[in-house]
Amino acid sequence: MDAVKDHLETQFPAMITALNAEYNDEITLGTPVKTFLGMKSLKSIPAGDFPALYIFTPTGRDVIGEMTPGTTQVVIETEPLLAIGVLVMEQDREALDPQLRRYCRALEEILLTGMASLSDPLRGWILSTNEPWEWDIVSAAYSDSQDSPFVGDLTLTMRGWRMETRS
Questions:
Q1: Which of 83, 88, 133, 144 is the most buried (most CB within 10 A)?
Q2: What pLDDT does 47 receive?
Q3: CB 154: neighbour CB atoms within 10 A?
Q4: With contact defined as beta carbons under 8 Å apart, do 19 and 102 qualify?
Q5: Which whole number is the average pLDDT over 126-153?
């Protein structure tokens, strides 16, 4: 999923600038400081690494095509479930939900733009399968301290698809 990661990291700063200008209110989005790959990397994100972008594939499937006897070539359709999200730290809990919804919009627009690219969109990955894109938002206090900031998590999940021939 390096293609998706590279595209998101490249396009996020301009999208954040555009959304902040469009809404022009007291809620300001920050560009993700760091990208985390895999679920294990999310267990200990330092406070200075927020907002954080993350990408992992909780499940997936490979559809293996028929092999002709005597050959080693096979067509494989890879269909991972992608979880792409943003973790945000915010003192104002009321500002957290609108922030996360705007990050969702940013992710969706960046990914749709990447798929619309005329030259090798997302290096062959297609994210517009027949399955819906789903988003989920959760938040909680960062620590037990009374003046603790809140951490919000937006996760956008979708099915990816790519076909390749392997020998």
A1: 88
A2: 78
A3: 25
A4: yes
A5: 88
The pair of structure tokens assigned to 136 is: 């989920």
DSSP secondary structure, 109-136, as one string: HHHHHHHH-SSSGGGG-B---SSPPEEE
Three-class SS of residue 91?
coil
Quickly state the pLDDT bin for 128 (edges 50, 70, 90): confident
Domain residue ranges of the chain, discontinuous segments joined by +: 2-59+80-159
Which of 28, 150, 151, 18 lies closest to 85 in space, CA to CA?
A: 151
Q: CA 124, CA 93: separation in Å to the nearest integer?
A: 39
pLDDT surpassing 80 at residue 1 = no
Any residues with CB less than 8 A from the CB of 43 and at least 6 apart, and which?
none
Q: How many CB atoms lie within 10 A of CB 106?
A: 24
Express each pLDDT in 23-36 by its tens digit. Answer: 989 999 999 999 98
Contact between 4 and 84 (Cβ < 8 Å): yes
- The burial class, CB within 10 Å (0-12 / 13-18 / 19+), for 162 is middle
Residue with tokens 């080693």: 72
